[in-house]
Input
Amino acid sequence: MRRTAIERLLPAAYQRAAGPGSVLGALLDVMEALHAPDEAVLADVDALFAPYRTPDGFVAYLTRWVAMDHVVAAPRADAPLPLPVGRLRDLVAHGALLARWRGTPYGMRTALELATGVTGFVLEEPADRPFHVVVRVPPAAADRLALVTRIVEAEKPAAVTVEVTTDPAAGPEPPDADADADGPEGTATGVASVPAVGRARVPSPPQDQPSEEPS
Output
């Protein structure tokens, strides 16, 4: 708050005594200086809740707001994140989409691709095992099985059992040219094989597969 605004809140007698060089005037100058950092934060407070503008240290907190806290596994404040902060930003940005399609093949594949930066996840439902899903992980994401398993367990329907396995038949996909580059304003740290131009793009939800619509 500016000194002039603070001064207007004072009784008239105090306002007359707050002239230049007065003790009260000096106190008002100090009050303005003390308010300045808070005023700066409040002037840009919307940036705290924007996925691609919020500070890196706040991204993990926002993942809990969009019910993706299973991705970061509730780390301690000093614990390293299990994936690049840019991919967390992508998950937050697509949080509403993922919530809508949770429990469907499209939702699970999208969450896995955004978190790992790799495409090619295959979901199979064996005919001889009802209510069971096999998730085949492409080799490029084989070193992130713990993360993949956490996502699969959270995204699957409650009554379904799952099996996570690597897919040796599939070859690794070429990395994105921007895979490890952070853009301005803290944009996504490259999403390896998921097409990205600054921010990750995801495939459109299926339009001709009513079976994938969430119940």
In short: The first strand starts at residue 122 and ends at 124.
